[in-house]
Structure of Serine aminopeptidase S33 family:
Amino acid sequence: MKKLIFLLFLLNISLTFCNTKIYNEENYKFPFKNRFTSTAIGTPPRLQYKIKKKPVVSLYKLQINKTNNIPEIFWFAKKNIFSLAKQKKKAPLVYIFSGTGGYYNAPKTKFLRDVFYNNGFHVVSLTSPSHPSFLINSSSYGYTGIIEKDSKDLYKVMKKAHEIIKKQIKYTDIYLVSYSLGGTHAAFVSKLDDKEHYFNFKKIFIINPAVNLYTSSIILDDLVEKYFPNKISDVNNFISNTENLFFNIYPHDHINLDLNIIKDNSYNLEGLGLTEEKFKIFIGLSFRNSITNISFISDIKNNLGKIVPKDTKLSKFDSITKYYKKANNMSYIKYFNEYVLENLKKDDPTLTKEKLIDMANMMSITDYLKNKKNMYVAINEDESILLPEEVKWLKDTFKGRSFIYPYGGHCGNMYYKQNVDDMLSFILDKKN
């Protein structure tokens, strides 16, 4: 009997080990070996997972916060919009959370939507709590960035969305798939649902989650601070000098560089004047753009008077240019300290900076995640927004439940065919 128990123990260890798939430089052919290049421009089109059919998408609007509590200047975002791509027959259902600053139709969210739709799923896409519109119409505390609070708000939105879509479709099991900050939200939402048992997710897959939002934000802040000591003037000069490189900056996605302009397979970007330094700057500026937006909205919504004078009633016809300029180039650390922490302490004087940081840290639920057997994670060894010890924590916490890639930066290899095949092999229970 003891021998049998021991053999079963060894078998369990073996199975756990086999469930982690680790790639190396020889068997992983993603073209970009620089983490900032990967993060900035993503996967070349010809190496992406191919989408055969685009779904017909229905949009729905949710009333979360009372409209009379939303300033008139934000008339355009009084309701929370989500989308549904539905199959014609009974099918599994997957929820997708957008990443940092992402709307329900952010490019990466749409890509995941199309992947799962093409594999027979109903798909619901939701806006990130870090998107300005969510902050306006769905935040319970008037700010964003405190993962515990944001995840509760997102879970509330999710349940309201489900009450609508369950009348529109016939579904079997429910899944949850998310990336970047959305992956972090998914971990906390999963924990909430394990208490409430509303969705009872069959499987959860998270891609390149932010482990500690505070430390990741410091990394992103530093990408701007290092190169732009003179703030606005330096930023404007940089953008004007590089606009001929076919860039557009998205607050929630990759820089939009047309990789089809590279005619060979070498992907020699330096020949186009695209250096690591430029990629770092664009990544940092993209993040700063998001912080500017949420700082501006938080100031008005909470009547803080830091950007717009207190008790100013802005109508939808008023110009906001002078106020927006004041908010421009806001760092996350300043937003965290002077907006979130300073004002939440008014309601809870015992609140400390350390406690608030912990509320935005996946490590605070380590024990839960270690035992969450139906949750898998995709990890890039060269992750550009995590500290090395955070990458190690992910690998240790999700031991036996992960796909580990040597390259990809932050979500840069998300569209890469091998990565998508791995994700589907877990979700669909098939060998890859």
